Amino acid sequence: MSSPAPELLPEGGFTRIRCELSYDGSYFSGWNLQPDRRTVQSVVEDLLSRLMAIPVNTMVAGRTDAGVHATGQVFHFDIAQVDRDRWNLTSLMQIANRLLPDEVRLNSLDDAPHGFHARYSALRRNYRYRFADGFKVIPPLARADVAPWQQNLDIDLMNEAVVPLIGTHDFAAFCRKREGATSIRSLEKFEWSRDSDGFAQALVSADAFCHAMVRSLVGAASIVGAGHAEIGWLGELLNGGDRVGRSLSAPARGLTLIGVDYPTGAGLLERAQVLTRTGVRSLPSE
């Protein structure tokens, strides 16, 4: 029996609010609500619900794991128009930021354009990963979002090794298996460079990511970059389908969701309708 189609638009008499936020994931057990765990979703929903004196239920663009950060996370929530009319959104954001814990901040709070859906309208999610390789010193103020790596990483070698991963593939080898979930994704970007601090930096973008996928991709690439695997190893993993061991998954602390891209205008609803209508992703025909 198939699941009912998700609601893409607010119900009658309701309006949608779009929010962008940042958080230090070191203090949270991920985004999603979990029993007896401190999560970003629980902190944000609890604060907004108490502040606005109404139940607030959020829909997020990307469900980050425990320890993963964000500078450009996006979510929405729907409220009755009568409740929306009570608030100036600039004032609401300012009050919320005064009351939220220091590790969470709302970057923007606006009326959502017609057709906007934080999850289903998204074109791609963009992540950054940073390694302090070769025993580089991590400054105390950078310790939250940079992971240590003892050996020197060869940037050119890693960029060559990740080429076979670009495109639409079944990334089962790089995802933690979830019952009923597909591991087919379209990886649009996976580029390594040195940032201004000399850290090894990966920029990774895809239409969506399955559970632990970015950290597995980064961890496997770093094995090649350190000279412990041949340049074709990532392609072999992709085609073989055997799950990359959890020991090869890069630490959560180095990973940050830096942004979510959306279409404009009528493209918002069109994108959401396409994703929810097609349902299961499929590989391109040969």
From TrEMBL:
Ranges for domain Pseudouridine synthase I TruA alpha/beta: 22-120, 161-263
Family designation: Belongs to the tRNA pseudouridine synthase TruA family.
SUPFAM superfamilies: Pseudouridine synthase
Name of the protein in its database record: Unannotated protein
Key words of the record: Isomerase, tRNA processing
GO terms classed as biological process: tRNA pseudouridine synthesis
Organism of provenance: freshwater metagenome
GO molecular function: pseudouridine synthase activity; RNA binding
Annotated PANTHER family: PSEUDOURIDYLATE SYNTHASE (PTHR11142), TRNA PSEUDOURIDINE SYNTHASE-LIKE 1 (PTHR11142:SF0)
